Amino acid sequence: MNKVFVLLRNEWTKISRKKIVYIILVLTVLGIVALGGIFKMFSHYSDEQIYYSEADSEMEDEILNVESEISNLEELIDNYEQDNTPDQAQDLANLQINLENMQHYKIMLELGLEKNINIFSSDFRRQLISDLADLQLAKEIKLSNSQKANDYTLAYEASPEESIADEIETDTDEASTKQAETVRGNDVDPSDFAGGPDVYFDYYSDIYSTNYYPYDYYLYKNKYTDLTIDAMELRMKNIDRIISQDDYAAFIDYQIDNVKSNQALNEQQKDFQIADLKLELQLNPTGKPNYPGKNYFLSLQYLRNNSFEAINDGYVLYSPLLPVEIEEAKQHYQVANYYLNLPATNPPEADDSICHYPVSAISLGTYAIICLIIILAGSTISQEISTGSIKGLIIAPVKRCKIFFAKVLGIFSISLIGMLIVYLTTLISSYIFVEPFYRLPYVFTTGNGVSALEFPIYLLLLSLSKVSFVFITGTIALMFSSVTRSTSIAVGITMVMQFGLLSIYNFIKLISIRLHPIIAFLPFEYLDLSNYIFPTINNTSYSNFIFFGSNLNREFVLRTPSSLPYLYWLVMVVCFIWIARDSFVKNDL
Amino acid sequence: MEKEVSLSVRNLYKSFGRHQVIEDLSFDLHAGEILGFLGPNGAGKSTTIKLIMGFLTLDYGEITICGKNHRTEYEAAMQNIGGIVENPEMYHYLSGRLNLEMYRRLHPGVEKARIDEVIELLYMQKRADQKVKSYSLGMKQRMCIAQALLHKPQVLILDEPTNGLDPSGIRELRDLLVKLAHENGVAILVSSHQLAEIQKMCDRVIIINQGKLIDNQPINQMLKQTEQNLTLFQFLDTTQMTKALDLFNDNLFYQPSIIDQNKLILPLEEKQIPEVIFRLSQAHIALTSVQPHQTNLEEIYLSIIGGGNPIE
User: pLDDT tens-digit profile of A571-581?
Assistant: First the structure.
């Protein structure tokens, strides 16, 4: 054993005299620092407000369009009512819904003009204008005692969904065609759609409710129709007051009241949403459309809320969750909740993309060290044989297997030291480029709850876990170096395996994923143990082994025991080392 | 009294694929002895040395170094051996001294000061700290010999040790090897095509061809066996020598051996020489010199091997 360490010392002597080692290490350090600069540059928060539209004239133009639509719809409804037959009830209900949507839209536009609030802008009060329009329309319907809409609605709801869908998609009936043509009016071009891209998307996503107007009828229809006229007026006054105050804090209070009175939410959900609203007010007291950290908090809230619903309902996308998925959802819920409960006393100043820098820097550094290790391991045996320098080792009184294991230890120690350099560089540049808020701990679930690793410790352990990937790549290069005895072949093949096959892998997965999960199993892809030691929040060890699980292909996730990746890694390392050792020790030189 | 056997090679067999390179090769190397290892290209000399040095694995046979079995006690056996195989090669991006230092680490008990000793021994003091890639072939050869001597091995295996050395270097090496063998009792195996050098430094010679042992005897004995009264005749030019050959062919008593365009050798008793000179002068053949001739190893080697093997 002593001789192995002497040989290892010799390996170190040789490695430390190679220029390529220093070149790659310097490039790695510079690359990590430069990456920090790039992240910093692109995460710079800009205070510019993003408006969908700023021109009030657009609202005026839109009113004219809407009025024209309303008159068309009223004419159509009249025609239908004249020859009212039971089989036309669904069409009539649709038209009535469209009419009410248009009326609501018109009210919004009028209110916007009246109160000088552009409803296509990012002004937070457009939400209030929408609510005001809801109330006003609900009030008008109630005052006119019109039961028509309700009757139609009841007929619409009673009809089987499939038949409606079929009718909309495939009906060749002359009247329907005529109605469709008339209602749609001019074709809508997304680029000039007044509601902006989000609204345009909603417009196409709901084929049942409207053909033109983007809002969901039932949202406002059911929200206020149960209120008395007095209650409606009280609410409208309150909204008017908030609009005139133009105070975001008052708007948040209004939203908190809405949450509290929302019967569809349970107490826990209400608590979440109220806390989220208060946090938003803290981070964004003036109600700007965008503020630093917005996406960070929104994504965590999204994850927490979705996980919570999944745990409570046991369903995702109308399909029941597996017990293991519920466990994952619980982990996600706990982790998201932990992050959200961290004190926001030091609110962020930059965009949240900077918080991805430390992990990205470690990944960049890992690939640089992989390049270094491929060059060193790929030449360690073959170059010594081709230059004849191996003679000095063979003549020495040491067995070949000891020479070989010293080389393996050399590769491991270089991997380790390379990753420690990456770690230190990343840590220092993180403290330079990343503000304290985004130097996040790593949160993971334990048997009893949640634990967190502080940022520097997490980075250290992440870097050390990446050694697994660097080292196994080194053993692959060593294997090719020993078997082929050609540095260029060993380095070339290993480089292609590490960097070139990923795209081919992804392509194979793309075409085969629907056949069976095992087809997507590609032997050299699962060798980075850091993915399993520190799974990212969306990819737990359960779903990560064969390919990343998602809601879209849940049924194709081959779920494996959590220890399998480690076992697989170990088996592969032993295989690579065994082949390399056998070739080096038993073959003639 | 028979000296101690330092290296014993017994019934060695080695083939590459179907090609049998070494076949039943056996020989001993004694302490304090310099053994010349001769043979034409492809005879199996380098293969034998590589087998002894552990570069190749044996098909069959046994190698013992200072009583330690090469197969079962590899590290103990290799502790006693040093040498150079084929071309002198080291880590070219390291200095000569660092190469020696790395080699020293693998031999427990060898002090650092020994590095300076061997560097001085091979006259490499001025260049030892420069990178090996800046060395000439001769310098590399010196450094490799220094490495081979570093741990004071009991057995030295040297494959073409004079390769690249200048005449003074060759002489210094020869003196060094003779001193090591005769004063320090080191057993030395030298493989070389420089037969004159072999003749000057070796105590014994073995000749192999096509993997088999052809001859194995002390060099003095080998030269003695072929010792006859030989006389070298040198003629003015080729024409004169052709005439002389015609003359000698007419008389079966004379058996000339041609060694050059205008030189030939005749085995003659001392009293026959004036008669031959007389006959040549009678025939008007211009003779420039007549002198006694001493047989050397090259001639013996060539007489044994003949024209060598066609390379397969």
Answer: 999 999 999 99
Q: For the segment A397-447, what is each residue's pLDDT rounded down to a tens digit?
A: 999 999 999 999 999 999 999 999 999 999 999 999 999 888 989 988 888
* Chain A CA closest to residue B59: A588
Beta strand B155-159 with B81-84 is: parallel
CA A231 vs. chain centroid, Å, equals 41
Q: Which of A7, A17, A399 sits opposite B94 (nearest CB)?
A: A17
User: Tokens 């209004």 correspond to what residue?
Assistant: A254
CB contact under 8 A, A392 and B102: yes
Roughly what angle, to the nearest 10 degrees, separates helices B137-149 and B113-121?
Answer: 130
Mutate to test the interface with A, among B49, B105, B135 (most CBs of A within 10 A): B105
pLDDT bin (cut points 50, 70, 90) of residue A193 is very low
Task: Give residue A547's pLDDT.
Answer: 29
**Terminal C-alpha separation, chain A:** 24
- Name the nearest CA neighbour of A66 among A204, A181, A212, A207: A212
Backbone angles phi, psi at B56, to 5 degrees: -120, 155
With a threshold of 0.80, does the pTM exceed it? no
More reliable by pLDDT, A22 or A181? A22
CB contacts, 8 Å: A13 with chain B: 94, 98, 101-102
Residue A422, token pair as written in the block: 């990456």
Query: Is A397's CB within 8 Å of B98's CB?
Result: no
Query: Does B302 score more than 90 pLDDT?
Result: no
Interface contact B78-A17, CB threshold 8 A = no
Please classify residue A489 by burial: count the beta carbons closer than 10 Å to its beta carbon, then call 0-12 exposed, 13-18 middle and 19+ buried: middle
Chain centroid to CA A531: 17
- Could you tell me the pLDDT band of residue B310, with boundaries at 50, 70 and 90? low
Range in A11-25, A111-125, B7-21, B50-64 the model is least confident about: A111-125
Tokens of A239: 């909204």
Domain layout of chain A by residue ranges: 2-44+350-586, 52-217
- List CB contacts of B70: < 8 A, sequence separation 6 or more: B52, B54, B58, B62, B63, B64, B77, B78
What is the separation of C-alpha A326 from the centre of its chain, rounded to a whole number of angstroms? 19
Beta bridge partners of A452: A443
**How far lies B224's CA from each of A430, A525, B303, in Å?**
86, 74, 15
The listed range with the strongest mean pLDDT (A20-29, A542-551, B142-151, B260-269) is: A20-29
3-state secondary structure of A54: coil
How many angstroms separate the CA of residue A391 from the nearest CA in chain B?
8
User: Residues with Cβ < 8 Å from A198, sequence gap 6 or more?
Assistant: none
Written as six digits, the tokens of B215 are: 């001859």
What is the SS3 assignment for chain B? CCCCEEEEEEEEEEEECCEEEEEEEEEEEECCCEEEEECCCCCCHHHHHHHHHCCCCCCEEEEEECCEECCCCHHHHHCCEEEECCCCCCCCCCEHHHHHHHHHHCCCCCCCHHHHHHHHHCCCCCCCCCEHHHCCHHHHHHHHHHHHHCCCCCEEEEECCCCCCCHHHHHHHHHHHHHHHHHHCCEEEEECCCHHHHHHHCCEEEEEECCEEEEEEEHHHHHHHCCCCEEEEEECCHHHHHHHHHHHHHCCCCCCEECCCCEEEEECCHHHHHHHHHHHHHCCCCEEEEEEECCCHHHHHHHHHCCCCCCC
pLDDT band at A519 (very low <50, low <70, confident <90, very high): low
Report DSSP letters for A219-262, one per residue.
HHHHHHTTS-HHHHHHHHHHHHHHHHHT-HHHHHHHHHHHHHT-
The HSE-up count of residue B66 (CA atoms within 13 Å, CB side) is 19
* d(C-alpha A404, C-alpha A479), whole Å: 11
The pLDDT value recorded for residue A206 is 38
